[in-house]
Amino acid sequence: MTGDRARWCCEDLDEAIELASNRNKQGIRCIIDPLGELAKDDVAADNAFSAVMQTIEAIANHGLYASIALKPTALGAAYDLEGCIIKVKEVIRLAWKQGIGVEMDMEARRYVDETLRMATDLTQMGSGPISIALQAYLFRTPMDARRMDLAGVKVRLVKGAYAGDMDDFDGITSAMIDNIDLLATMGRPFGIGTHDPRIIERIWKNRGLKGLLEVGMLKGLGDETKVKLVGKGWSIAEYVPYGKDSYAYVARRENYLRNLGKLGFEPCP
Questions:
Q1: Using only C-alpha atoms, what is the Rg of the chain?
Q2: Measuring CA to CA, how many Å separate 232 from each of 117, 152, 225?
């Protein structure tokens, strides 16, 4: 793979497994995502389902310190919610059987309620960990964080990469910090996804978060910071996507960097 796409995602599962293995040797956990978005028919949803199941088996077979990322729309949530739920339950059963965590991604706001409901219902099945991404740019996130805390679902807080209630960079950063503070008061382990040097510096100084917080970063960003934080005893995860269905994912990453540049900011090194 060449060009910008190679920065953001792996070509195939083998490359993703190799990268995750190398990251594990550095003390970095991985979240592996077989890329796929917005299945509109059974063929696309079934292909995404097969990729997820193959990824779980590969994680288990290689003994990786990694979890599986799950996008409900890739499994058909947009056109067949019940069919999607059936697939997700099968994913959960296999992952838990292999001792692998499942991390549900959050997508456009019209899917938020169903994704939260799915995570809550699946957690009640018991037997293994589920986490869910919540987006700081939504006003509802503090309420949803409390709801997930009561349901026993681990939260992974991100700024958001779709369209939210805010588009002001400083406002979203402030909301991110406020939500981190809220999650810290709940006493349950949680994660964040960020490459913002201001947020990294703030948590760096808060030693009380070390036992609760995992800092997640994307493949292609923050490699020096990941290693530095691990060396200081922080829990770090890297999001490792792979596959040919990468256009939308790569476009969001490139848009993120463009917007940062316009504001005069750079992600952490």
A1: 17
A2: 37, 29, 11
Burial class (CB in 10 A: 0-12, 13-18, 19+), 236: buried
Q: What is the pTM of this model?
A: 0.92
109 half-sphere exposure, CB direction, 13 A CA radius: 13
For the segment 117-173, what is each residue's pLDDT rounded down to a tens digit? 999 988 887 767 789 999 999 999 999 999 999 999 999 999 876 666 777 888 888
Task: With both helix axes pointing from N to C terminus, report the angle between 169-186 and 197-204 in degrees, rounded to the nearest 10.
Answer: 30
Q: For 247-264, write each residue's pLDDT tens digit.
A: 888 888 888 888 888 888
Side-chain-side CA neighbours of 201 within 13 Å: the count stands at 7
Full set of structural domains in the chain with CATH: 4-263 (3.20.20.220)
